[in-house]
Write a structure and sequence with these properties.
alpha/beta, 7 strands, 291 residues
């Protein structure tokens, strides 16, 4: 099975006014991110506005990313649904398209007991022959992954990683202590990636890496070399981007940053709003600051 590690940008989903995916823009972004040194690509993460896209749009985003990557880096495609059968169908379809892994995300209208959460993720992993990254974000999800569920799922032969987007780095350490080498931990922009690498993380999957890929890769390499003093200096500088990311709408912030850098990715999908002119100036100033 593929070994996932390092910086995986959560890709935006560029959409024309008529609903078509801007495949040329997305393809160019993927190519430039790979040339910047990122270790993988993640279409249909939170920054990819998965909750706002229909099935055809999601398929187009995944297919475009896989074609642009052309085997140079792994593509871990987001799968999300409120219905297990639909999530399984998505995972199978993306595997057929050539995805190297699945980022499994659970949506829930009603809260679910642990047994149902376990069953959802296990069903996705049972349906494919590629690694599965389980995802948890208690800020936005009605049903979270408990430590007990994570520990049980880590025994599955294809559930090899977890992306935890909570703000609780101590929870990551608890996961590592409970699961050992059975599951690799990816952090999010809500964590301080250098700290997560210090305690044993394998990398991070995050939207800001779309607009600061080279700097993110530099940070990862410093952590990998255990040059912690230098890593923390860079981490402090880059954290300003994460602070802005947390302050504004996720997709709007990253899409504005990419537009400033010359990528015509469009606005976030309604009813989300684009950044105001003043908010965009904040992002522009931060990008200048981090180089």
């Amino acid at each position: 099975m593929a070994d996932f590690h390092g910086v995986f940008p959560y890709l935006v989903s560029p959409v024309h006014a008529d609903g078509r995916i801007r495949t040329e823009v997305l393809g160019r972004l993927c190519d430039d991110l790979i040339k910047s040194g990122v270790h993988g690509l993640t279409p249909l993460g939170s920054t990819g506005e998965f909750a706002y896209l229909d099935a055809a749009q999601r398929t187009s985003v995944v297919q475009t990313t896989i074609e642009a990557a052309h085997g140079r880096v792994p593509v871990v495609a987001g799968v999300v649904s409120t219905v297990t059968a639909d999530a399984v169908a998505q995972a199978k379809a993306y595997e057929r398209l050539g995805a190297d892994g699945i980022l499994a995300i659970l949506e829930a209208y009603f809260p679910l007991p642990d047994a149902s959460v376990d069953s959802y993720f296990r069903s996705i992993a049972d349906a494919v022959d590629i690694p599965v990254v389980i995802y948890t974000n208690p800020q936005f999800q009605r049903s979270d992954l408990s430590l007990d569920v994570i520990a049980r799922l880590s025994a599955h032969p294809r559930i090899k990683y977890i992306k935890d987007a909570s703000t609780n780095t101590g929870r990551l350490l608890s996961i590592m202590n409970r699961c050992g080498d059975a599951i690799g931990v990816f952090s999010a922009s809500a964590h301080i990636p250098a700290a997560v690498m210090l305690i044993g993380g394998v990398g991070w999957m995050a939207g800001p890496a779309c607009i600061i890929p080279r700097q993110s890769v530099d940070l990862y390499n410093l952590c990998l070399a255990k040059r912690w003093d230098e890593a923390l200096v860079l981490q402090r500088r880059l954290w300003r981007i994460n602070e802005a990311f947390a302050r504004y709408n996720l997709a709007a912030c990253i899409k504005a940053g990419l537009a400033i850098q010359g990528y015509d990715v469009g606005d976030p999908l309604a009813p989300q709003a684009a950044l105001t002119a003043d908010e965009r100036k904040v992002i522009e100033a931060l990008l200048r600051e981090v180089g």
